[in-house]
């Protein structure tokens, strides 16, 4: 799509921003430096996953009126949002990235999730899982990201979807998400949580319970 530059406020002629093409990561956003998505270390439990997008479905199940099995395109048809956030791994590295995706709460609405349900369990293609309070996910506009720094999330880093668990340790940022289960199971423990990592996973607290 071609856009014609408009005139900015007097004395500040505005230049049209070039539209980044897929495959070209941006390294700066509104004055903030960004890290490459490939700077996110790859230490996942079973290595990079190759999800076949033709057969991929994102399931939204559990305490819902209508269990969903959404195609990639159906998820992307929801409204898009973006935010710049830093992911911090317990191993001591971190990356600042522009995340773009859909609101998990929009997926919950689409499935008619029980508004009283307390827990969301995220499942991934590699058998990984983690859980988060439903109130945290709704109140913080938590995203399910499909683009990072303007490019499609690479297969090696979580394609098609990665959970953007703002203010939580990296192990809450589920990659290769295949399912969201709406639940009341507060005793559920995800992969690293079952090895003793904090179930709240709050960045401000130690990850050791
Ligand atoms: N599906 C899946 N998601 C995952 C992981 C994983 O092993 N599998 N690792 C978590 C951890 S510990 C971190 S820090 C981030 C970043 O990727 P990493 O696993 O390669 O460290 O992804 C998180 N999400
Ligand atoms: Mo991590």
For the biggest β-sheet, the strand order reads: 4-3-12-7-8
**Coarse shape:** globular
- Please count the helical segments: 3
The secondary structure category is mainly beta
Point out poorly predicted stretches.
1-11
Strand content: 25-35%
Head-to-tail CA distance between termini: 52 Å
Structure summary, number of beta strands:
12
Mean of residue pLDDT? 93
Can you put this structure into words, describing what you see?
It is a single chain. This protein is mainly beta and 209 residues long. 9% of the residues lie in helices and 28% in strands. The protein has a 5-stranded mixed sheet. It binds ligand MTE and molybdenum atom. Molybdenum atom binds next to loops.
Task: Annotate the secondary structure layout.
Elements: E1 28-29, E2 32-33, E3 58-62, E4 68-70, H1 72-76, E5 81-88, E6 94-103, H2 104-111, E7 119-124, E8 129-133, H3 134-139, E9 143-148, E10 151-152, E11 162-164, E12 177-183
The structure holds ligand MTE and molybdenum atom (MO).
Name some characteristics of this structure.
binds ligand MTE, 5-stranded antiparallel β-sheet, 12 strands, globular, 209 residues, 5-stranded mixed β-sheet, disordered N terminus, mainly beta, binds molybdenum atom, 3 helices
Concise account of the structure shown:
Helices cover 9% and strands 28% of the residues. It has 209 residues and is mainly beta. The N and C termini lie far apart (52 Å).
């Amino acid at each position: 799509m071609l856009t014609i530059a408009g005139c900015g406020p007097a004395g500040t002629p505005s230049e049209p921003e070039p539209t980044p093409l897929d495959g070209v990561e941006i390294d700066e956003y509104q004055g903030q430096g960004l890290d490459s998505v490939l700077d996110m270390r790859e230490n996942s439990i079973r290595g990079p996953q190759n999800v076949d997008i033709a057969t991929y479905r994102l399931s939204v199940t559990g305490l819902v009126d209508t269990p969903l099995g959404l195609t990639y395109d159906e998820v992307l048809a929801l409204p898009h949002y973006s935010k710049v956030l830093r992911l911090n791994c317990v191993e001591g590295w971190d990356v600042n990235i522009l995340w773009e995706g859909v609101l998990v709460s929009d997926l919950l609405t689409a499935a008619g999730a029980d508004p009283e349900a307390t827990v969301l369990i995220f499942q991934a293609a590699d058998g990984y899982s983690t859980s988060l309070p439903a109130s945290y996910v709704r109140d913080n506009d938590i995203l399910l990201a499909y683009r990072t720094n303007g490019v499609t999330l690479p297969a090696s880093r979580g394609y098609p979807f990665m959970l953007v668990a703002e203010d939580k340790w990296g192990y809450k940022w589920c990659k290769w998400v295949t399912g969201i289960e709406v639940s009341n199971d507060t005793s559920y423990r995800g992969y690293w949580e079952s090895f003793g990592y904090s179930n709240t996973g709050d960045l401000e607290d130690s990850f050791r319970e």
